[in-house]
UniProtKB/TrEMBL annotation:
The lineage of its organism: Bacteria, Bacillati, Actinomycetota, Actinomycetes, Pseudonocardiales. It comes from the Bacteria. Pfam families: BPD_transp_2. It is found in: Cell membrane. It is a multi-pass membrane protein. The keyword Magnesium does not apply. This is ABC transporter permease. It comes from Pseudonocardia ailaonensis.
């Protein structure tokens, strides 16, 4: 048991936590845009998967940075399908999200078969790995240096996205419109806000960030694509969104918790713990987070109802 704890509680684990957090955080911030706009986008998983596949497929024949751009393009294309189905054709958001996930799962397997003759994974000759940023002497700083050293550019981008998201929500006209649409659609329409355009933009932004998440997931270390490699991280991102209610800092905190659980699960597996039990850890934390979020939301609804009754005319 002591050896297992020593395997988990190391400085190297800190860097792994950040690398594991980055794709969940990027997807969660992307989903935060739609959540604030009144849409719970459960298609994050499919958009991440599309990004991961296109990133490897294109990056493997060009270079990793072109692969990242392709990953964004692939995910945005899927987000466009989501936006058209949900906003133009007026389909149910949840049903469309499920359809996007199924389309990505089946489509990537089909493309693996067509392009590489293997439904399970890309061949060993198709590799695309993002370079790591060497911080030099800064990397020798205790704890912080080990946390940030030798991370991909997308990890740094994920950290920068959080303040950018905060600024966009609370300091720009688009953010004001997005929050107005999510809080009261009828009032937003009365104020002259183009609800469809705002939500369309939010969905495309969600797809772009999910593409970056898929690229980080596929290209950070392995450099290849496996069918279903997102392994429900998109749904974990949805759990983080619900827990944080789309707010920037709480979303970061929730994603760090999930990333830490994922990293610890890997370390426990390396330490000899039953792999199935270790891999269960992130999902247990996800369920706990959703229960806590449900309790908070229910309490908020009761509080609003109580205030409304107190101010209602007798």
């Amino acid at each position: 048991m002591t050896d297992m704890l020593a395997q988990v509680l190391t400085l190297a684990t800190l860097g792994v936590i950040l690398a594991k957090t980055a794709p969940i955080l990027l997807a969660a911030i992307g989903g935060g845009f739609t959540q604030v706009g009144g849409i719970l986008n459960i298609g994050l998983e499919g958009m991440m998967l599309a990004g991961a596949f296109t990133g490897i497929a294109v990056g493997g024949v060009t270079n990793p940075f072109v692969g990242v751009l392709a990953a964004v393009g692939g995910a945005v294309l899927l987000a466009l399908v989501y936006a058209v189905a949900a906003l133009v054709l007026k389909a149910d958001y949840t049903v469309v999200g499920i359809g996007i996930n199924l389309l990505a799962a089946g489509g990537t397997v089909l493309l693996l078969n067509v392009l590489y003759g293997n439904a399970g994974a890309t061949p060993g000759t198709v590799k695309s790995i993002l370079p790591k940023i060497d911080l030099g002497v800064v990397g020798d700083i205790p704890v912080l240096g080990r946390l940030l050293d030798h991370q991909t550019p997308l990890v740094w981008l994920a950290l920068l996205v959080v303040p950018a998201y905060w600024y966009l929500l609370y300091r720009t006209r688009f953010g004001v419109h997005l929050r107005a649409v999510g809080e009261d659609e009828s009032a937003a329409v009365a104020a002259g806000i183009r609800v469809g355009r705002v939500r369309f933009t939010a969905i495309l932004a969600s797809g772009a960030l999910c593409g970056l998440a898929g690229a980080q997931l596929a290209m950070s270390s392995v450099g290849s694509f496996n069918a279903g490699m997102t392994a429900n991280r998109g749904f974990i991102a949805v759990a983080a969104i619900i827990f944080a209610l789309g707010r920037p800092v709480p979303t970061l905190v929730a994603c760090l918790v999930f990333g830490a659980a994922d990293a610890v699960a890997d370390r426990l597996t390396l330490g000899g713990l039953n792999s199935s039990l270790a891999l269960l850890t992130p999902y247990v934390i996800t369920v706990v987070a959703l229960v806590v979020a449900a309790v908070r939301i229910r309490a908020a609804i009761r509080s609003r109802t109580r205030r409304a009754l107190q101010h209602a005319p007798s």
